[in-house]
Amino acid sequence: MQISNEGILVILFVGLVAGWLAGKIVRGTGFGIIGDILVGIAGALLASLLFPKLGIRIGTGLVSEIVYSTIGAVILLLIVRLLRTGGRL
Question: Where are the transmembrane segments (predicted)?
Answer without folding.
Answer: 6-23, 30-51, 66-83
